[in-house]
Specification:
Helix content: 25-40%
Low-confidence stretches: 284-300, 538-545
Oligomer: single chain
Strand content: 15-25%
Number of strands: 27
Largest sheet: 11 strands, mixed
Strand order of the largest sheet: 11-10-9-12-8-13-14-15-16-17-18
Structural class: alpha/beta
Mean pLDDT: 90
Distance between the termini: 71 Å
Length: about 550
């Protein structure tokens, strides 16, 4: 437990007892047992972190937090006044000019700095974070580690699943989670670290043993002003002046953004081995060299970990040779299709090695990993391949279509949309990528959130129609996602591929601010069951409510 006065000293806050009688400062000595941003989540003994917001100040909810047992409030000057109005009882207020900036340190202090007791591996980048995290977890478990996983799909503590709502939780939840992991004997934590988490301070006061970088391509430009700003947020995990700089780094240098990140990671380090680079010997399947320019200095040729002799099998399993800094060439296997998953696997092994795990054991561990919603096959006895994938960025969509195209001699259908209240500039690019690469594109709703679904589809369709007719696939517009999936399945012939892209592992669809139950894997499975019952009957017209937009000559 931590006393309020000790917590205030740790974060540089002023303790003020509002509504206190003269000389009454007993509240300063109260013991703090937790911290939370949500008034409804407060338990007795917690500090309520009341932050200023765009629509309301968190301190407006101080009354609820205090009723639930909060022993103090962390806030700014404006919040202090709101707390004083919310109750007539004496309350300890930790006044800080920037309470959000202090939240990470406050959370770590309350929970006893748990990340110091474990090796924390943070993985950032645009694509591949989730897959790489799962591969690292499997490699570490095979090497005898007790592992915690924090990610987009789920959080696991020694194999016990906890649902995730954010790629990276807010600082109070994250440090509380670390504390629970520490209590359960976890020695190594693998976590995805999003650009939002780095920019908003969600991982502040986390002590990273190793940082990993996958790649960078267009995403989240609704939040970041441009790709350089996006890169800068990712770079907080590696930059010399960053308070969350990882002690060591492993960076994929297959694209120019990676080579640039390696230079950032190397800056100011005396130990050259503190930064390891990984290459598969070519451009990243999910990056864009032209976007970053020539970073120089850390090219693929000088990488510490190199991939050669990669051989894909018809089943999607891939064999490759991985040579590490010790000069030993080891044969490795990854059970996921796509060359980008060879890159993810190589990065995963390098990350395992960087925390001292046995390399050969890690390689054995990654061989059979399956990742929910990432090139996940749905089998109902059909005579064509049906796959669900989380690809919701142009580069990732292009990569997964290319992977599936290479795995079949048949045609490829893609069901695709774009999320509402997110980066609008990538919507037409998604449509263009799909139209160029697939034989059938069914433009549908993803998570419209608070936007007009038809307007989102129109933007995706604009991109699809920008491709010359002779170079593009057939295009359908079907707003209802289940009907869109049905149409793609009905179109398929033996040997074809149906890809449902964008939502992957998600189990809900957010429409007009309401999340409805929807799992692409279940809906695709139901469509396949109908296909098996009815049997293929050749060409099919667009589903009810759909519109036809032509196709390749």
């Amino acid at each position: 437990m931590t006393q309020i006065s000790v917590l205030a000293d740790a974060i540089g806050a002023r303790v003020e007892i509002v509504n206190a009688a003269a000389g009454d400062d007993a509240a300063r000595a109260a013991a703090v047992t937790g911290i939370d941003l949500r008034a409804q989540g407060i338990r007795p003994g917690d500090v309520f972190a009341a932050l200023p917001g765009a629509r309301a100040h968190g301190a407006s909810f101080a009354g609820t937090a205090l009723e639930r047992g909060a022993v103090a409030v962390l806030t700014d000057e404006a919040g202090r006044d709101l707390v004083a109005e919310a109750t007539s009882d004496p309350v300890a207020v930790l006044v800080h000019p920037e309470p959000r900036a202090a939240l990470g340190a406050a959370s770590a202090t309350v929970y006893g700095h748990p990340s110091r007791s474990m090796q924390v591996i943070g993985i950032t980048g645009t694509s591949g974070k989730t897959t790489t995290s799962y591969l690292v977890e499997a490699g570490l478990v095979a090497a005898g580690r007790v592992v915690g996983l924090v990610g987009t799909v789920e959080t696991r503590i020694e194999g016990i699943r906890v649902p995730s709502t954010l790629t990276t939780p807010e600082a109070p939840q994250l440090h509380a989670l670390f504390a629970v992991m520490r209590e359960r004997g976890v020695d190594t934590v693998v976590m995805e670290v999003s650009s939002h988490a780095l920019a908003l301070g969600r991982v502040d006061a986390t002590e990273f043993a190793v940082g990993g970088f996958t790649n960078l391509s267009q995403d989240h430009l609704d939040f970041h002003k441009d790709l350089d700003d996006y890169f800068g947020a990712k770079a907080r995990l590696f930059a010399e002046d960053s308070p969350v700089r990882a002690q060591r780094a492993v960076v994929c240098t297959d694209d120019a953004w990676g080579r640039r990140m390696a230079e950032v990671a190397r800056a100011g380090r005396d130990d050259a081995t503190a930064v390891r680079t990984v290459t598969t010997g070519g451009d990243s399947a999910t990056g864009d060299d032209s976007a970053a320019g020539d970073a120089g200095g850390v090219g693929a040729a000088g990488a510490d970990w190199t991939v050669t002799d990669d051989v894909p099998e018809e089943t999607g399993v891939q064999q490759f040779t991985l040579t590490g800094p010790d000069g030993i060439a080891r044969r490795a296997t990854v059970g996921l299709p796509g060359r980008y998953n060879v890159t993810n696997a190589a990065l995963a092994v390098a990350l395992c090695a960087e925390v001292g795990a046995d390399i050969d054991a890690a390689i054995r561990g990654i061989a059979d990993v399956a990742v929910p919603g990432r090139v996940e096959r749905v089998e109902r006895g059909q005579d064509f391949l049906a796959v669900v994938d989380y690809a919701h960025k142009p580069a990732a969509l292009e990569a997964v279509i290319g992977t599936l195209r290479a795995a079949t001699e048949g045609r490829v259908a893609v069901v695709v949309g774009a999320g509402g209240d997110r980066d609008r500039t990538k919507r037409p690019i998604m449509g263009e990528v799909a139209a160029r690469a697939a034989d059938l594109v069914v433009v549908t709703d993803d998570n419209p959130r608070t936007e007009n679904p038809a307007a989102i589809r129109a933007a995706v369709l604009d991109g699809a129609h920008s491709v010359p007719p002779a170079e593009r696939g057939e295009i359908l517009e079907i707003g209802d996602r289940a009907a869109a999936i049905d149409a793609a399945v009905a179109w398929a012939r033996p040997g074809d591929v149906v890809l449902v892209a964008g939502k992957g592992h998600e189990t809900g669809q957010e429409i007009d601010g309401v999340k409805h139950p929807f799992d692409d894997r279940e809906v695709l499975g139901a469509a396949l069951d109908k296909y098996r019952t009815a049997g293929p009957d050749g060409d099919h017209p667009p589903a009810a409510g759909g519109s036809h937009h032509g196709g390749k000559a």
